[in-house]
Input
Amino acid sequence: MLTQNEIMKQILTVRHESPEQERELCFTLLSQCEDRYEEAFARTYLADALSSMGLLDSAIQECKKALDITLRNNYEELSLTLYNLIGIIYTYTDDEQGALDYYFKGIKLATRMNDNMMCGALFANIAFLYRKFQAYDKAIETLRMAYDIVQKASENKMRVAFNDYVYSRELAGIELQRGQPDRAMEFLQQIDNLEEHLDDTELLIMHAAYYQQKQNKEESLKYLKIVLEQIEKDDNQFQRISYYFDIIETLLLLKEYEEAEKIAQKAEVVLRGMNIPGKWVMLAEYEIQIYEKLGDSQKAGRAYEMYYKKDVQQSENRKQTEVKRLKKRIELQKEINKRADIEARKIMLVSQSEQDELTKIYNRRGIKRHVGAKFKETQQLQKSFSIAIVDVDYFKEYNDTYGHPAGDNILQTIAQILEESVSKAGIVGRYGGDEFLIAIAQRNSEEVEQIICCIREKLKQKAIKNRRSTVSEYVTVSIGAVNVVPERKTLLSEYIHAADHALYEIKKTSKNGFLVLSSF
Output
């Protein structure tokens, strides 16, 4: 029989090779542990194994049990491992804020422990989140900071895998993701000998993406074939899903739709054992593209249904209080399933997922998709782009005085006024509560102000009484906007932040006014 120390050493040895074996060793250690440290160690790496197997809910439960023990007993190294692991799991489940919270807890602890290796690895994980949201410059900046921190490390007690090779590989991945294959190859060439790293699936996927972007289909497919052979042997189910998605994306760009369908089917088999709605949504998006290109409307319809169903589930996981909305979506889904016309069903599904139920204009999802697309288009053209945020003055007081049904009528009226005023010049959506967002492309600041004045005049003509307002006897709005030509590295979020700041300035001083900024 192995001793507890021998079991712990074996766990660290097999954890990257076999999650199943790691799990069984952890169960053995739990049955034999004699102190709290051994229990915390067993639960930490049991969570690690479960996350690799895609059992994320169970993994989080074990993490919390382990973290409770480590914090109570001041087991700092295990706490640090758990902060990193929990952050990774939350990244898997698309809870980026949760991930950041734990990464920064880890950075604070690693700094106090003077563990530069782990501190650098945590910053590298944050760089991955920036990359996920296409904030590439910030991703590179954070990754370089992580690398600089790691260079100061005198030891690697946590066995963190972050060296020159990984650094170059990650930089190459960022450049490929933003469509810079030549720049990516400069980093890939810094990796001395590719033959020594043929077991690195991520590196092989990058080479496939590189050749796809260089329009060398034959070479790209060659690398994808090697990748497929390798990942079939991978016991890390979640990692396999990520690789499958990378392959599908490359195959779609290569217009190899039938091959992409085969990989999507493999991914679906693996996902069936996982409760990860976000990954199902991603898979459905890929399948929609595949089947529309293949002309299979029936399968495309089923993919839309899966997308809609899993998207609802993902939203429910994030916000349990949206029970009423969930019920209405389920009822709508049942009604849609009865329809024979798949195309009509597809259009309705997409429309409902992007439409605000009360005002019938875009919701936040619709804003994200349509405004995001318009922003990218305008950015490429290097034309002016404007974001305006409209806030109803004294809306809470109006609701308290006249009732929520009257408040709903106000929101519907303002939504109609915005659509009429903006018309084909831009996009209108409900940003949340009593706030609306307007996006206008290729208009100068004077034209934007004209549209805003039109909105204010139309609302004034409605003459809707609000006796609780201190700026007017009628319902009014405050509008903050920004109108700037976006640079290549500018993010849409920067526009929204600037418009929100302009709105704040108006609300702070007078309300019932507007401010259009010409710079951030």
